[in-house]
Design a protein that fits this description.
Blueprint lengths: L8 H6 L5 E3 L8 H9 L3 E5 L5 H14 L4 E5 L6 H10 L4 E4 L5 H9 L3 E6 L2 H9 L5 E4 L5 E2 L5 H11 L4 E4 L5 H10 L3 E4 L1 H4 L8 H9 L5 E4 L7 E4 L2 H8 L2 H19 L3 H12 L6 H6 L2 H10 L24 H18 L5
Parallel strand pairs: 1-2, 1-9, 2-3, 3-4, 4-5, 5-6, 6-8, 8-9
Antiparallel strand pairs: 7-11, 10-11
Length: 354
């Protein structure tokens, strides 16, 4: 029998059993992982940025066939076909829309009018304040410990800043993998935690076993931050491939990015004009050079090589620092129940304030 629900503002907002979010990791958070997370009582988030519109529609329907629990879809707000993806979310009755970049005020309003819960991910207090003012229902705060694109401020510093600045539920991400972390996040004022690397390292994850073994073998010192994948800070496992990227000259990097842009165009079904439009949207309002925009094509293809094809010799492995603390591959159900048992035990062991 499953433990009793653990109510927070996050569980009340989304209807999930426990205040845990499985984050939307490209190439990793597909229907199998998302439905397993949802059935375990967490909020599973389907990653759509590496899917075509048609693949997203099929993936949403597959998740719905595997679970009756609430789940979400992660979107790129600056994508040229974001409107089509939002339509799928609305038409299919998806509970949550999450965003890696801040959605526009109009997009938030469109989703909320349809009854969809909007949860952008942010890396700075000012971004949280902006989306909260625009009507976002909650925010996910990722500190520098988190995997993939990341910032410099640690979760323990960023989280209380954001909690104090906004009046909506805050989900803490970056550095979480167990029940003690959940209790710590709640003590800071968060409504729950988001985890990527911990859910990647489950038996329900479709990442090849040999790649999972490399994650499990990593120590905390084996997780690094590099800007050589796409010009932006990216946390991943340090491998021979990462060392090679960091030795690459500018010309070689741009040639590789152009090849990957072409490959991603075929993978995503996007046209060159659409890629240019998306690149322009990425650049707008940010201090990105056109070289950085082009280099962004490296990210999905280098991740796919490792996380889908198992080619760690030619790909990269996004990773949070917690990879160095993870030692097993439980099912999502086992993981979530373990975390909740640890959280309850931790709360019970705290000194009585009276």
């Amino acid at each position: 029998m499953s433990p009793a629900p653990f109510a927070t503002a996050l569980t009340e907002l989304t209807g999930v059993r426990y205040p845990i979010v499985q984050t939307g990791m490209g190439w990793v958070a597909g229907p199998r992982l998302v439905s397993a997370s949802a059935n375990a009582g967490a909020l599973g988030i389907l990653a759509s940025a590496t899917m075509t519109v048609e693949q997203l529609h099929a993936a949403v329907r597959e998740v719905k066939s595997r679970t009756d629990a609430p789940f979400g879809v992660n979107l790129r707000a600056d994508a040229g076909d974001a409107g089509e993806r939002v339509r799928i979310i609305i038409d299919e009755g998806v509970k949550v829309a999450s965003f890696a970049l801040a959605p526009s005020k109009d997009l938030i309003a469109r989703l909320k009018d349809a009854g969809v819960v909007v949860i952008p991910s942010i890396g700075a207090r000012r971004h949280a304040e902006k989306v909260a003012a625009w009507g976002a229902d909650a925010v996910m705060v990722q500190g520098g410990e988190g995997g993939g694109h990341t910032g410099e401020v640690a979760t323990t510093v960023l989280l209380p800043q954001v909690v104090d600045a906004v009046g909506i539920p805050v989900i803490a991400a970056g550095g979480f993998h167990d029940g003690r972390g959940l209790v710590a996040a709640l003590a800071y004022g968060a409504a729950g935690i988001g985890m990527g690397t911990r859910f990647l390292l489950t038996s329900d994850s479709t990442v090849p076993d040999a790649v999972k073994a490399k994650y499990l073998a990593a120590t905390v010192k084996d997780v690094t931050v590099t800007t050589q994948v796409d010009g932006l800070p990216h946390r991943m496992l340090r491998t021979a491939m990462v060392d090679s990227l960091e030795r690459s000259g500018r010309a070689a990097s741009l040639l590789r990015a152009l090849r990957h842009a072409s490959a991603f165009r075929k993978e995503s079904g996007a046209s060159w004009p659409q890629l240019v439009r998306d690149g322009t949207a990425m650049k707008h309002g940010k201090e990105l050079t056109w070289s950085q925009v082009l280099l962004a094509a490296n990210t999905p293809m280098l991740l796919k090589a490792s996380l889908v094809e198992g080619r760690t010799d030619i790909g990269v492995m996004a990773s949070g620092q917690v990879a160095g603390l993870i030692e097993d591959l439980p099912s999502c159900s086992e993981l979530v129940e373990r975390i909740m048992d640890e959280a309850r035990a931790t709360l019970k062991a705290l000194p009585d304030p009276s």
